[in-house]
Amino acid sequence: MKDTKKLVVAALMAALTCAATMVIKIPTPTFGYIHPGDGLVLLCGIVLGPVGGALAAGIGSMLADIFSGYLSFALGTLIIKALTAAIAGLVFRRIRAVRSGSTGSSYAGIITGGVLGELFMVAGYLFYETLLAIISGSALAAAFTASAAGVLFNIVQGVVGIVLAVILFPVLYQIPNVRVWVTGK
User: Fold this and answer.
1) DSSP string across the chain
2) Could you report the per-residue pLDDT of 81-121, keeping only the tens digit for each?
3) pTM (2 decimals)?
């Protein structure tokens, strides 16, 4: 990132992603938790673009895992959340480009990018948790079955993230630099 303001905003969004992930936690029976951090993950990709957003989202989410005692998930979270943000950012930009940047295109981009990004998140954690269980000595079928128990909660987390991104985007869009980064104008 050549733009100093954008670099500072990326660091701020990484910190906000970490805080949003850690501050409000709704525990799940699978020993995970639902949190509003995914809204920030999506906004990282949308506001900062696929590369900068991926870095901010991945680092912020990874730090939340480290600080919250989920160290075994830190590497997986870094990769999964970075790719979630990248997917959301790429799809958002593609939809805005195709639909000439209309207001409706922003919401279509947030929702479509959010759904595709969050579907990747759900699949990514299913794969990662299965891998962790296999490494711990579980058989493949048992590892997959145990990991699949968290899918519903990850879907809920993804939906919460999309709703938050839709609500917060218009607020961020009022910031002149954010508008320039999003529109390219």
Assistant:
1) ---HHHHHHHHHHHHHHHHHHHHS-EE-TTS-EE-THHHHHHHHHHHHHHHHHHHHHHHHHHHHHHHTT-GGGHHHHHHHHHHHHHHHHHHHHHHHHHTTT-HHHHHHHHHHHHHHHHHHHHHHHHHHHHHHHHHTT--HHHHHHHHHTTHHHHHHHHHHHHHHHHHHHHHHHTSHHHHHHHH--
2) 999 999 999 999 999 888 775 666 789 999 999 999 999 99
3) 0.93
